[in-house]
Amino acid sequence: MIFFFFSIILFFCAIIESRLLFKVSSCVLALYFSLTFAYGYDWLNYYQSYLALGHGGDPFFGDLGFIFLMKICIGLGLPFPVYSFLVNIILYSLIIFFSSKMKCPSFCLFALFAFLGFFMFTEQIRQGLALSIVLFGFVLFFRKSNTRFLLVVAIACLFHMSAIMALFYYILSATKRKYFSISLICCLLFYGVFITLMSNPQLVSSLTIIESKFETYGGMYADVNSNFLDFIIHSKMLFVYVFIVILLNVFGLKINKNYPAYSSAFLLVLTRSSSLLVRVGYYFLPFFLYSIDGFIYNEGKGLRCSWKKLTLCLVILFVSTIPIWTPMYKLGANSNLNILSTSADFNREIGVKCNILHISSDIRTDGCS
pTM of this prediction? Predict the structure, then answer.
């Protein structure tokens, strides 16, 4: 699987941690996954929406920023592969920009790609783009200008409403014990309120847009979330996050020395305890990586890389194999399209993807009859 291949390359780059190697590997990564697409299934919906907008129809989503971006490309007469290239090159450029501001940029990029490369940057592309915009604003304005950061978050929300979760960065950034306790309480409140609204969207019926979002995503995961305990037992990522937190504590990163890291880790664990919150949790991973950047930097690089950093990198590499565990995603990623693909290529790939969906899943998309 091509995603695991790139994860292996990024794994060695994270161990070596060379600025030059980071620039080369990040450029190759961005170009490859911008020139190619259609590894998963969500692109079928975007393709149909692109065609629909071109003929005066409506897309399957209502995010104004993404619709505007589509309409610009359609107005310029750009085919869907070129549109896909532009979206992905913007996404990866912003993710790379965020990583470049870290003390350990290669480690940051490796972790982001291992955790989010397939599901966030390939499948859930609107949310992936929204996250990349948030991270761009985070490294530029979070510590300097609240107004500018909030403006960036507002722009990101135009691409996916979930970007509002970036406001939690203010709560997670607590550096004193008293505020750390408050941040944990806020995390628990967020968890309870979000689960309640997902299950009962009518509680915010006065806010039509918000209600529709909660209703849509709550309905998508209702069946999956029917057995809370069963979901937790089978949630591989929940145990991965717990294991990483235990490792960091064993490695000497004490809670009272890095409250932001443990606050964000706590939220990562919480959001993996319910299928309703999985996609929301993606916003807290970059903040967690930002919080442990100094710790990773002190663990050395190259031949001086400590066994602690090596162990953590191996755990992250293991995470990158998760899409391979699911036959539907493993089969789907075996073929793809690229910027030069023809109509015949599209028809063939649509047939392949729809056949996999019909056999392996009950998921239905606009692109499959």
Answer: 0.90
| SS3 readout for 54-116 | HCCCCCCCCCHHHHHHHHHHHHCCCCHHHHHHHHHHHHHHHHHHHHHCCCCHHHHHHHHHHHH
Give the 3-state secondary structure of residue 241. helix
Q: Kindly report the number of other CB atoms within 10 A of residue 292's CB atom.
A: 24
E strand or H helix at 196: helix 177-199
Q: How far is CA 255 from the centre of its chain?
A: 26
Q: What angle do CA 356, 361, 363 make, to 5 degrees?
A: 100
Number of H-type helices and E-type strands within the chain: 21, 2
Pairing outcome for strands 36-37 and 337-338 = antiparallel
Q: What would the two tokens of residue 25 be?
A: 């590997």
Which pLDDT score is estimated for 138?
A: 92
In three-state secondary structure terms, 362 is coil
Residues 293 and 103 sit within 8 Å (Cβ to Cβ): yes
**Sign, Cα dihedral of 232, 236, 237, 239:** positive
How far is it, in rounded angstroms, from Cα 323 to Cα 301?
A: 29
At 332 the three-state DSSP class reads helix
Amino acid identity of residue 211, one-letter, is E
From residue 355, how far is each of 43, 124, 243, 332, 368 by CA, in Å?
15, 21, 37, 10, 9
Higher pLDDT, 186 or 360: 186
Residue 33 near residue 122 (C-beta atoms within 8 A): yes
Euclidean distance between CA atoms 326 and 331, whole angstroms = 9
